Amino acid sequence: MIALGVDVGGTFTDLILADLAKGDVTIHKTPSTPSDPAEGVINGVRGICELTGTEPGRIDAIFHGTTVGTNAMLVHDGAVTGMITNEGFRDILHIGRHQRPQHYSIMQDLPWQSRPLIRRRFRKTVAGRLDAKGNELVPLDEEAVAKAARELGAAGVEAILVGFLFSYVNPVHEQRAAEIVRATLPDVFVTTSAEVSPQFREFERFTTAAMSAFIGPKVRRYVSRLSDELREIGVHGELRVMTSSGGLATPEMIAERPATTLLSGLVAGVRGGAWVGSHAGTDRLVTLDIGGTSADIGIIRDGRLAEADARSAKIADFPVMLPMIDIHTVGAGGGSIAHIDRGKAFRVGPQSAGADPGPAAYGRGGTVPTVTDANLVLGRLVADNFLGGRMALDANAAARVIGELAEKLGRTPEETAEGALTVLNSNMANAIRSRTVQKGIDPRDFTLCGFGGAGPLHAAEVATMLDMKNVLIPPHPGITSAVGLLTADLEYHALRTAFAVKGALDIARLQALYDDMERELGAIFARDRVPSDKIKMLRQADLRYVGQGYELKIDVPDGPLTDAALDQVWQAFHDRHREEYGHAFEASPIEIVTVKLRGLGTVDKLAEPPAYAVSSEPKQVGAGRCVFRVDDVLETHDTPHIERNSLPVERKFTGPAILLQTDTTTVVPPGWTYWADRHGNVRMTHDNQA
Question: Which segments within 36-152 are labelled E, that is strand?
Fold first, then answer.
């Protein structure tokens, strides 16, 4: 089977073509096309097919990570969206909750108020009401629904959310209203809150569904167009898209539930890091994926990707109630702009030069100093060996923009460039502390896995700031997200709100809920033509002590639910609560709030890293002047430039060194030891930490 992984980043689109039977792998990078991401994907597919001599028709499957939905949320560029809801509840999306992101600020920005997904004039109310048990109190006013749909259509809305109270218990009113809207406006994207996230907490449920409507038309058009254009160039293999939970979905599922792609490309990187770590013998990793515009941080504990909970799941500061891997993003990347802000402070990012025009060093007309320019000025990038020599950097342009900033700061160009890297690295180190130290996790017990186009440039210095002992750089860092796409299975989720308290719960009812969800996911897998022996169902539940405001997700044993099985669940909750908060209340009653089912459909994927060609001696292809900060003093070192794939296995060398390869550059600072392991990973330790 020949599989193609395609990950679209802010600057480059990364591809990996793998013959899964032979283990042969080829990588390729092509510039992204932000105005039309599908164009960059098609260009990349053509390029890698030409590079390998592969006929497009031989590709059996395409696994894709997309940022279309993510970017639409980040830049607030989605569809004009309308909403139909209950009378008297027009402003739920605006009011939100009493919790404030910044507890003591009176000037803070609440995104659902300052940049609403659905403007108030596009929110319509109709008569109709269910009670908390799903019983009808007031019949749905179907004529009012049709009238509201016509008014929204006349106003030019492109998507409509139908969201009613208590639809997570009984979706009948939402389903009927959606039927009416679809019949009235057949060309408008329509979704319901129960279809997207059938859970209690109406603000979060409505907001999550509003995101799905807001990005829905754009995501649906993109996936449809990409599918068509792949067929036009002769690719007829099945298209699968990465979801925020770390699994794959079909285009049909993405069209129905576009919000599941909100972290599509970012999650692929964490999956790739976890896969590399598992083969390198470590299952405790902090992944640092640095691209052109941002740095994405993930945590892998005991081989499992950390999942976002109800408190931390956010996109563009909007709460999300969907299964998601916990990823923290900061505005730190190769294109991050170094500047002096209005308060005369020296900052780096979050503004980025992006892919066009990009850093000044790209020679495309960039006029502002960026992190890439700083790395070039310090000698950490080799001007004539960028992207394996396929792209030359403009050292003069980089020196000019860094020099202009240096004059404003009253510093030398080297001090300015190194200062920019220190600020950027500090921002990333602080972000890692927020996901580790602030959660009771000691990062020193983890390995820092640096990847993305810029991750290997900064990984060692970020690790130094965190006192982390080990750094791991995958064989193909710039396309680790694309690799992660080839390690995933089809994955779908179902859930039901239960509200069952220990000591007073109906086991038969809980069993019936799980059975119903298994039938639901089984039907989806059948539609996707997944054989029954390739399907695995994993049970979970969200639990809390009675009276608590948030839940913890706990695994539920397979098989018939019994008192003994539930005893395991209760104890697992106490243990998880103690781990999360430092204490547990074992005498307090526990409530099952939501029951969940995770369905996995196994697909062919990468089993082992490609064989690493053994070399006897490292191949030095040049040397250059590099500037490093050592003991708070800038030092200039004559630094060898070495082809990374020439490193002998398990033979250790000392830095400084610049390791060159097609998709990235790895910087080994002075005082660090580095070597290649048997899978081709570069391992690094600091001399006083080894």
Answer: 61-65, 81-86, 123-126, 129-130, 136-138
